[in-house]
């Protein structure tokens, strides 16, 4: 599962005073929790959530004119939001799912495309979620049954799953009706969370609802709410009784499944916040001789691909990155004999203070892990992979394009980042422009064999080699 590495500006960022409201909400929550000396997570927690779309905290799930998407769309406050977001949001031409009847009472009255969205989630998305979370057969059964039960009895989970499912549709077109449906279910979800917080009703259902809200906001581009969501969810977990109490409900023994789901969402926020590209050029400038590293660290460097080891010896990468690389290598060993579609996703804690180059390296590893695991074939790839935004971020780091020691690394980063497993989620022109930029003026790189040799100096995936060669073939034919 967001200030972020992904430097894009969604509909809530363009000339919108609500951005300031999110920042104020975050500061207010932090200030309230720190007041009067001893920290009290209950103080300020129940005011952390702000509802940006004209939805009253007292609104219910009963349909009325104030929550109708057409009414909201025509209001002066939201007119710009709808127009700009409909242009930028990647949406499919149709809703996938057979609208099968699940045990959800009155789902037809819950809003537009609700039945189709729920069908799409339980029939199509759920199996991918189970693989990405690395759940065994018992966990898969309780996870699906628990979500279905909560969907039938909680409007918050229902609207959250509906919004998430609609966001996840592949980017093969844009449909204004689907976008309005996403915003409708998001408003309902926000209102539900707000009411529960006002009533101090903190339980597993509320945690699950927020875990659905976070990726929806990330997809829609409400990046300013990432720190607010992170702070609020952390406080709610503390009020719940700590992390060990998460999932301690009677609903189909959901248990550790909710813990794993929550950690995945929280890691998405932390990952985006920690790996953001800063305006300042932060370059280590060969100030860290390898000999100054601890013997244990030097031993670990010897196990790295030669291209990465070279960057450590040159002082471009610091020891802070070593645990991340070791985590990735451990994951590679663990999933080596597992079919890619069944491999769990890889994420690693990201320490603060990494340079822009190091942040780009970490994000490249995540992209490669996603493309070679269950995440690569996940229908919701449009939400988390973000190849366009990450390609743009690479171009915004000057040292990547000016330091000769980074030439091969740039070719590897751009290749991995611009070629997602699902090639429908990136524009071909954006892909080709970045790859051409990575070899501009370098005659040596005009043949695939030479590019492949340089890619092999880093983490090279035989699973992705065919697609990389095909993509580079198109680029080299145009040079």
Automatic annotation (TrEMBL):
Residues 27-79 are annotated as: Disordered. This is Fungal-specific transcription factor domain-containing protein. It comes from Aspergillus pseudoustus.
